[in-house]
Design brief:
alpha/beta, 5-stranded mixed β-sheet, 14 helices, globular
Amino acid sequence: MRRAFAALLTATALVFAAGCGGATANKPAAKPPAGQPDKVNAGVIAIVDVAPIYLGKQKGFFAKRNIELNLTTAQGGAAIVPAVTSGQLQVGFSNVTSLLLATSKGVPLKVICNGTASTGENGKDYSGIIVKADSPIKTAADLAGKTVAVNTLKNIGDTTVRASVRKAGGDPKAVKFVELAFPDMPAALQAGRVNAIWVVEPFVTAATSGGGRLIASNFVDAAPNLTVATYFTSTQFASTNPDLVKRFTEAMTESNAYADAHPDAVRQILSTYTKITPDVAAKLILPRWPKDINRESVQTMADLAKGDGLLEKAPDINALLP
């Protein structure tokens, strides 16, 4: 775990070497002059999940609440979490397991609104466990003793994969995990370097189109209508800027509702911040963007993380969630 948190700091330095626009670790962004909009720098990942915030910016949902939104792309939550706590970012996007892990280590974070959620439909979710078409693995129970690729070890991937194995009647402790980047997983699967892969869209579509077979929807197996990720800030920023946080939350809630109601707009905006082509975007299974955080599912993720040994004790989710 020490290496993981050392990596957080290193990742932060790498992301912000390119510039973050108006703030340093010791000097948060200054208050704007009277009559000027509040500047919010939000850290996101170039994935389908964050389409609503791009739509919200495009549609003016933030501007009409006097927020000038800047979006900074990072490789993952490992860079975003420490950047938010240092003041380089005011808001960040991260999966709930990463936030639970950080909170358990005393990192002062506060979730402010929902990010993305599972569809809740088995076999029709934007996350899944995939094997080769001719693999002898038929269900998640058969993953015991096998090697499964996840994008980050000891995080939401292996926790939810274990949930699928457990639900199918297999031994979740017998699964072997290796870390691979999502784009590298389909080729690793077809080459036989791993027995199965856990991927999210657009890699679910890429893997199944390339000869893979879905055996489980791990987010669905972990918890009904799982809240997968949220937007968060530091506890300091939340306490000193309550009105700005309120306005950001309102804009993000409107953005999520718009995305949920306009899937075609989601598919169209993906090409503006990802490498997903329009033809692939048309085939993707989109996540859901509900208004409310499913608190019960977050508690389930905390309990699963504790059971898997990722957490020594389950953190108080009421302190983390709004």
